[in-house]
Amino acid sequence: xxxxxxxxxxxxxxxxxxxxxxxxxxxxxxxxxxxxxxxxxxxxxxxxxxxxxxxxxxxxxxxxxxxxxxxxxxxxxxxxxxxxxxxxxxxxxxxxxxxxxxxxxxxxxxxxxxxxxxxxxxxxxxxxxxxxxxxxxxxxxxxxxxxxxxxxxxxxxxxxxxxxxxxxxxxxxxxxxxxxxxxxxxxxxxxxxxxxxxxxxxxxxxxxxxxxxxxxxxxxxxxxxxxxxxxxxxxxxxxxxxxxxxxxxxxxxxxxxxxxxxxxxxxxxxxxxxxxxxxxxxxxxxxxxxxxxxxxxxxxxxxxxxxxxxxxxxxxxxxxxxxxxxxxxxxxxxxxxxxxxxxxxxxxxxxxxxxxxxxxxxxxxxxxxxxxxxxxxxxxxxxxxxxxxxxxxxxxxxxxxxxxxxxxxxxxxxxxxxxxxxxxxxxxxxxxxxxxxxxxxxxxxxxxxxxxxxxxxxxxxxxxxxxxxxxxxxxx
Length: 476
Known about the structure:
Elements: H1 2-66, H2 70-92, H3 97-123, H4 127-188, H5 190-264, H6 271-298, E1 307-310, H7 311-321, H8 323-328, E2 332-335, E3 340-343, H9 345-361, E4 370-377, H10 380-386, E5 396-403, H11 435-445, E6 449-455, E7 459-467
Parallel strand pairs: 2-4
Antiparallel strand pairs: 1-3, 4-5, 5-7, 6-7
Helix pairs in contact: 1-2, 1-4, 2-3, 3-4, 5-6, 7-9, 9-11
């Protein structure tokens, strides 16, 4: 029995080793597949880039031949596509300094080619002169720019293929080692017997308990959902308690700082006063941050029952609270007829408070703020695009808060709703980067979504989609 146990332990150790190498090999194979896909993408993009370079040269010749400005527009489109190809290549080879240097060379060559063409137009004002100049220098420009770009793209592709070959050899080595280990285990015989017995046992067990497994899975899923909800509540409570407890030491810092300024302001000079002022400023920002964090932890926490609320009344109250700021900025605010919804008044007051305040905060210095709040029934196309897992028969409210402020780059449209995310420094615009995260949390609690569209210098629009909700009979 002792020998059997010892042999079983050895066999299981070999099985474990084989499994470990198998997992590692699968990882390497998957990595190789990823490299293969990357190589395919690089091949496609480099071919496309080379094609665009030729198209660019053909478009230059076409313009010189016809002197039609439509070819200038085509050149602009081709340049944009080449820039996008280079950006895609940069993302694929961003960990390789040599490849990045080649891309930098390609960028420089494209800029130089465009500069040569622009100089040709300036130096040859007539169509005949320009055409003659383009024809004479066509070969020279190709050798100077087009051929060198092709050489750089070919070099990028060659290095990527060499990298792929190295990965391929590594995977083959791993497969060879795995084959040896599997052969050793097979010769032992014990592993095959154990695996066969385990497989038969698992098969019989699965046949007998398939229905029970489904029920167990459903029960586990239910428990996990309950645990997740409980964890979320605990995290919200933790954020609330942690933020609340931070207030006390912060008040002491502020109080001691005020005492120092009152009692020793005459004795302090130069940097001493500056340091106290910086402490006061930091404490103020910290208090604001804690306050906003408390608001975030409270957002969507239903302290009272839902009720039928008038959104126009809520917006009017907020505008009244912000009347001084509105008058100071000479802002124009237009509000459409908004719906009555079944919700919590505190949530929607907080939602509109943040959106309207942001519109006033991020207004342009040389233009009076214009803010409009509109309402319509959401189009099904919009709902299907922005709301996940929505029912086809469910209708949605569509509220929009639009301004003419500074706007932002659309690539940050999702980032702005992340807590503590800011697109501008705290020295440019005050705030903690929590307001829009609160808005997102509130809207999602009602089964909806919030998204933004914008254009730099032309303003932003914040769209709120929330489903219609039936009012209980006792509320009618």
